[in-house]
């Protein structure tokens, strides 16, 4: 069974923040220091997030990456023109062994999103 939840900037009251120095819009050489909300697994309600989608609801917010801690490693993701990012478990099959299917999963423990912008974070987790 899965639960579906959503967080927005309105849910960030009391959330901790960190400062990150980033390449604005992915342009090397143009760095800015930005406050980021830290969304922990406790805020998400689970450490078993199996699917997540993020949408930056304004054009300026698309210039700022998000940071996900996946499998214990923090990784930066640029949003691009759409302002959206998504991941979910994937079922795959080795073409050499057509009867066996594998499921590729990631373990999300923390999300960092730029503060001061409207956003929507939708996610599913197993219960």
Q: Would you give an account of this structure?
A:
Strand 5 and strand 6 form a beta hairpin. The protein contains 1 helix and 11 strands, in the order E-E-E-H-E-E-E-E-E-E-E-E. The protein starts with a strand and ends with a strand. The chain is globular. 3% of the residues lie in helices and 55% in strands. The model has no long low-confidence stretch (mean pLDDT 87). It is mainly beta and 127 residues long. The strands form 3 sheets. It has a 5-stranded antiparallel β-sheet with strand order 2-3-10-5-6. Strands 1-11-4-7 form a 4-stranded antiparallel β-sheet, with no helix packed on it. The protein has a two-stranded antiparallel sheet with strand order 8-9. The protein has one domain.
Topology:
Layout: E1 2-8, E2 17-23, E3 31-40, H1 41-44, E4 49-56, E5 66-70, E6 73-77, E7 84-88, E8 90-93, E9 101-104, E10 108-114, E11 119-126
Summarize, please:
With 127 residues, the protein is mostly beta strands.
Global morphology: globular
How much helicity do the residues have? Answer: under 10%
Counted by DSSP, the helix tally is: 1
* Spatial strand arrangement across the major sheet: 2-3-10-5-6
Estimate the mean pLDDT confidence.
87
Q: Approximately what portion of the residues adopt beta-strand conformation?
A: over 45%
Give the uncertain stretches in residue-range form.
none
Order of helices and strands: EEEHEEEEEEEE
- The N- and C-terminal alpha carbons lie at a distance of 6 Å
């Amino acid at each position: 069974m899965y639960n579906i939840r959503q967080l927005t900037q309105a849910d960030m009251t009391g959330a901790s923040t960190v400062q990150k120095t980033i390449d604005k819009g992915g342009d090397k050489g143009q760095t800015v220091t930005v406050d980021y909300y830290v969304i922990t697994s406790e805020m998400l309600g689970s450490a078993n997030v199996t699917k997540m989608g993020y949408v930056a609801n304004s054009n300026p917010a698309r210039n700022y990456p998000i940071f996900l801690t996946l499998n214990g490693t923090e990784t930066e993701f640029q949003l691009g023109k759409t302002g959206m990012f998504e991941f979910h478990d994937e079922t795959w099959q080795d073409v050499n062994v057509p009867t066996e299917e594998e499921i590729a999963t990631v373990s999300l423990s923390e999300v960092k999103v730029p503060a001061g912008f409207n956003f929507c974070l939708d996610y599913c987790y197993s219960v």
